[in-house]
Design goal:
The protein has nine helices and eight strands. It has a five-stranded parallel sheet with strand order 2-6-1-7-8. It has a three-stranded antiparallel sheet with strand order 3-4-5, covered by helices on one side. Helix 4 packs parallel to helix 8. The longest helix has 17 residues. The structure holds cytidine-5'-diphosphate.
């Protein structure tokens, strides 16, 4: 089964998705790492984003490998985040990555995290969660994570939110049947517990 966790940057998706996967013994899929890998490759190599997306081999697991090179840390910079958001507006890039994601999700139990998992990648997911938090809280979390200046993070975040929400293809939005959870002021443990509860409720057959 697939558990889809979507939402904007800094809403707590990665932390919560990892924790839920660990607790349930599911495999975690960070779809954003794929867009980041393509963003990095375009920054480094230039050329057409769609050709780069089709031409590179991305391996996602504990480490992220692009054509065999470990880019786990390199893809986390603000420059690569911005490049990822830019390449993510390209429909051909999206098609190439969605195909890779669907191939992975076809078998086994997954917690998949991104922007379009519930709407496009896995519309039949057993559970869809849309995580949000106030822009201030999201920026505070991201600044702490990166050790970066809060105002710069706020500015970059607003730009990327706008780009992700207003793009023509697969814009960031909750699926019609997603459970929306606002994580503002909530601990990771509480949000994780809530998602695990929701998964268990969906997985258990209803009593007659
Ligand atoms: O970690 P953060 O939430 O900041 O970003 P990410 O999940 O690593 O994704 C980086 C960028 O990739 C996002 O800003 C989106 O533009 C894009 N993305 C997407 O379009 N669809 C996805 N399923 C995942 C990421």
């Amino acid at each position: 089964m697939v558990v889809a966790i979507d939402g904007p940057a800094g809403a707590g998706k990665s932390t919560v998705a990892r924790a839920v996967a660990r607790e349930l013994g599911f495999t975690y899929l960070d779809s954003g790492a794929m867009y980041r890998a393509v963003g990095l490759a375009v920054l480094e190599r230039g050329g057409s984003a769609s050709e780069v997306a089709r031409g590179i081999e991305i391996r996602i697991g504990d480490r992220v490998l692009v054509d065999g090179r470990d880019v786990t840390e390199t893809i986390r910079t603000p420059e690569v985040a911005e490049a990822a958001s830019r390449v993510a507006t390209n429909q051909k890039v999206r098609a190439a990555l969605v195909e890779k994601q669907r191939a992975l999700l076809a078998e086994g139990n997954w917690v998949a995290e991104g922007r379009d998992i519930g709407t496009v990648v896995a519309p039949d997911a057993a559970l869809k969660v849309f995580l949000t938090a106030s822009p201030e809280e999201r920026a505070r979390r991201r600044a702490a994570e990166l050790g970066a200046d809060l105002r710069t993070v706020m500015r970059d975040q607003a730009l990327r939110d706008e780009q992700d929400r207003s793009r023509e293809h697969s814009p960031l939005r909750p699926a019609a049947d997603a459970v929306e959870l606002d994580t503002t002021g909530e601990s990771v443990e509480r949000v994780t517990g809530r998602v695990v509860e929701l998964v268990r409720a969906r997985a258990e057959p209803r009593q007659p």
